[in-house]
Amino acid sequence: MKRILLVAADRALTRFMAEALMERTMDLPPRPDDPWDVARAHTALEAKLLVTRGGRPFDVILVEQDLQGGVLNLLGDLRAAEEAASVPVFLLTERGRDSHVRRMAVELHGVAGFLDKPVTAEGLRETFQGLERRKRVLLVESDGDRGERYQRALERVGYLVERVTSGRDALDRAARTKPDAAVAALDLPDLRGLDVCVALKRSQTGHTLPVVLYGQIAALTGQGTEENAHRADDFVQAPFDDEILVERVAQLVGLGPGQAIKKKRRRSILDRLPSGVVESEQPTLSDLQPVEDEENPTNKSRRPQVAETFEGALETDKDLGRDDTDPPT
């Protein structure tokens, strides 16, 4: 279940959007088959507190452009927060209004897209349906140019990528954000790539985390290959095309809807060794089979009690005498 934060001053609006995404009324308790785990904030301060202290990280954030205090200030604060730095943010706005704000939101804060008013249930679902199965990848690379290149390659096929530059940062971030996969260079400024891999695999939160290492074979053989290489789920020998790295990650955690990278049987690291490597110096990483995405598709059956337009929801509330004064969730 993916988690979304809805930020708007109007409580009735956030309630309507929450019910449209969950496809049920908020008067019912949460269900295991809910498409979304929805949190609501009605001020910039509430939004920042939910992002930094609200538990599990958000997969997407929707912010109303007219939010009191200035939407650009909030966007800047969100991007500065480690918990939201790589989370896609959408802006709820009116088409043709304050175009300079929309432009600055994209140029300065990397807003992923816009949802235009009037809000409809169908429009909400269409906006976020492509994010429902996006996977998070933790990229560990100290070289700025390489890190930026690999991040772009992974993001092009729909991954949400968080990049760190040291092994210790990687261990800290993995424990807090729980990514779907980790991709790490062998050569890091503080810890060795294999040490990062071993530490992740031994941790309570990362023991099932797929890890892809990349770099020179010489660096791999010098980092305790025989003892530790088996802990990595795959290894990519440098130099390599960016697409190869993407393919190896996809073989472990899959891709989002609409993406198509043909999955192949992953070879043993021995099959990728250059000719002339002495057998006694070869790594012992065994053949690894691709791990298919076992996530069951959520039942998307429509639930008729949810209004399809915000205006319709207001009329329903009026008929029922309901006033949305419940505390933010």
CATH fold assignment of the largest domain = Rossmann fold
Number of domains: 2
CATH architecture assignment of the largest domain: 3-Layer(aba) Sandwich
Number of helices: 12
* Largest sheet composition: 5 strands, parallel
Level of helix content?
Answer: 25-40%
Task: Give the termini separation.
Answer: 17 Å
**Strands side by side in the biggest sheet:** 2-1-3-4-5
SSE order in H/E notation? EHEHEHEHEHEHEHEHEHHEHH
CATH top level of the largest domain is Alpha Beta
Uncertain stretches: 262-304
Strand content: 15-25%
How many strand elements?
A: 10
Structural class: alpha/beta
User: What is the assigned CATH homologous superfamily of the largest domain?
Assistant: Response regulator
| Average pLDDT metric | 78
Coarse shape: elongated
Radius of gyration, in Å, reads: 22 Å
